[in-house]
Predict the structure.
Amino acid sequence: EYRMKNAIREREERLRHIAAHIPGVVYQLRVWENGDMRMVYVSERAVDIFDLKDDPETFLDAFIKGIHEADQPSFLNSIQAAVSSRTPWDFEGRFIKPDEGIIWFSGTATPARRDNHLYFHGILMDISRRKAAEEELKKMDKLKSIGTLAGGIAHDFNNILAGVFGNISLARLHLESGHPSAGYLGKAEDSMQRATHLTGQLLTFSRGGHPVKEDVRLEELVADTVRFDLSGSRVKPEFAFAPDLWPAKVDMGQIQQVFSNLTINAVQAMPDGGHLHMAMENTELETRTPFDLSPGRYIKATISDDGSGIDPEYVNRIFDPYFTTKQTGSGLGLATVHSIISKHDGHIHASSQPGRGTTFTLYLPASDDDRPHQGEAAGTGERIDTPDIHILVMDDEAMVRDIAGEMLEKNGCRVQTAPDGEMAIEMYSNAIANGDPFDLVIMDLTVPGGLGGDEAIKHLREIDPQVKAIVSSGYADDALRANDTDYGVREVVSKPYTMDRLMDAVHRAMMQ
């Protein structure tokens, strides 16, 4: 008898040990003939997962009270149906923890009869990580579905903007200093810059927008961006950057856009003023994280505001395209931020409580090189004389060809134009044969229904291995292809561009 009792005790201890280490709450529910239910056993994990005592007498009532009010009816209906039909039960819902907010849980149970009594044996699991991953996939699917349309519209709109931008630049050349129309044209250019920013955001989360990465020191870049976007507002910045911060492996322009959008978002959240807290530190992840980041070195950035915060029902939607709770804004800012961070193999998430502000936490991949170089800003390098430079411009849009040609001619260049890659190749070959070769080609990579600049440049390199080319395109994706040395591209100028930006690209390409 002693041995039997000891064996039973050891078996019970073993089962409790197993239940305590299962990543979920193991429970046993007894059901009476009249439908009443009572917990018989609850494992120790109840404390860790739900902040509830592992007391069978109190657990069931406390657990039901903690379920999100929107999920309670379906939870009770599903478990009653399982009891009535004596069939297995499963459920997914939300549980509110007092200190940590909402978590997602799943519940499963299997009916069994013992000693003429009905029991349900099951497990309650925290599935918040899985739900977060599913939400992440949904966001990416939304971005992908809208991307094709947005990218096409933005590309065509950029061609239109290129014509408007170019004509404004040319018109200003013909005005004398102090002409009253100069101010109006300047304001028109400012409006055009805002339109360009909008199409840039569309392209970023469309099928284009892949980052062209380099090693970048974030301290000065971020501080300058934040201060600029806060100018004129009542929001004060506070910076806390680690003194030994690693350089980041990022696309400088896109990351600048990330911090700009987050800053503007904070200003809109604090119309009466406040503080924007910006911190960055090094972090090294040894194992894959809950948000599925690969192990490695990262820059962790946190951006917190003193605003009114975000309602819990909206927090998971703030990165959705065109979703906004503000009276002003397009709803593209945070969607663009999310897309850029994802394409950098990083992560961003938001936490907020009404009345306590909002915090965004970002992880950006760090460079393996602790001594990065910063790219030279456009327009700051040495210029060369442009008179008599022979340039071939290829673009399927006649308006863009005409504007680019006139801009170049105003700077003393000799210009010829082509509507597609086939004609550009023919003209380039003829120019060599006639003893008047082109010094430079400016090509649009995307030509609907025709030979694009990427393929055309390959043919030109067969004709002339020393060909110098500039990519001019409205698709952000082309910038990535332009950095492939197989194309022989020296510079990239994205549409729409001003005459100064075009000539900067020409000068840099000719100096290489």
Summary: Residues 128-173 form the longest helix (46 residues). DSSP finds 15 helices and 17 strands in the chain. Residues 4 and 10 are 10 Å apart (CA to CA).
